[in-house]
Amino acid sequence: MDQIVPLKKTTLSPSAVCRLAVIGLALSVQSSAFAAGVHLPGAHQTTAYPGSDTIHSIQVSKAQTSKKHKIRLYPDARQQVLFFSAAGEEGKVYQLFLFDMDGRLVSQTRIRNRETTVLTNISEGNFLFEVFTDDERIENGQLTVR
């Protein structure tokens, strides 16, 4: 039986996200530090699912998208972690729920407007995701990790 791991909330400021995107080496060092359990100031991780092997690709397909809120789910260049960011109305809180194909909750994380979080250790497989704000589903879709 799979075990659900408690999550740690992770947020990065917009300027930190830009620095990570511009300096690919910093992202590589950050991912390695997370794997080793090293704490880097200003950046944290959210464990999505234990037992991750080598991941070759992460694909996200959205079934419903919001016009008022800009929700992004995207992998890093090395396809090792998944970023979740949101931009919309000031003061909003966004929640991401990740389910396995049997409908079991695998991961749950929340961020505020203009924040980004990192999900790591996602096992291979197909997942369904939903993003909510104010108890309203604003996006959903499927995530495939190979």
Q: Could you walk me through the main structural features you see in this protein, from its secondary elements to its overall organization?
A:
The protein has 146 residues and is of the alpha+beta class. The chain has one domain: Immunoglobulin-like (Sandwich), CATH 2.60.40.10. The protein has helices at 14-22, 24-36; strands at residues 46-47, 58-64, 70-75, 82-87, 93-100, 105-112, 115-120, 125-133, 136-145. The strands form 2 sheets. Strands 2-9-8-5-6 form a 5-stranded antiparallel β-sheet, with no helix packed on it. Strands 1-7-4-3 form a 4-stranded mixed β-sheet, with no helix packed on it. The longest helix is centred in the N-terminal third of the chain and has 13 residues, at 24-36. The chain is globular. Residues 5-10 and 15-53 have low confidence and may be disordered.
What's the layout of helices and strands?
Elements: H1 14-22, H2 24-36, E1 46-47, E2 58-64, E3 70-75, E4 82-87, E5 93-100, E6 105-112, E7 115-120, E8 125-133, E9 136-145
Parallel strand pairs: 1-7
Antiparallel strand pairs: 2-9, 3-4, 4-7, 5-6, 5-8, 8-9
Concise synopsis of the structure shown:
The chain is α+β, with helices and mostly antiparallel strands. The chain has 2 helices and 9 strands, in the order ααβββββββββ.
Mean pLDDT: 75
Say how many strands there are. 9
CATH topology: Immunoglobulin-like
Q: What is the rounded Rg?
A: 14 Å
Please count the helical segments. 2
**CATH homologous superfamily grouping:** Immunoglobulins
The second-level CATH architecture is Sandwich
Shape: globular
Strand content: 35-45%
Going across the major beta sheet, what is the strand order?
Answer: 2-9-8-5-6
- Model regions low in confidence, pLDDT < 50 over at least 5 residues: 5-10, 15-53
Number of domains: 1
CA(first)-CA(last) distance: 21 Å
What is the highest CATH level, the class? Mainly Beta
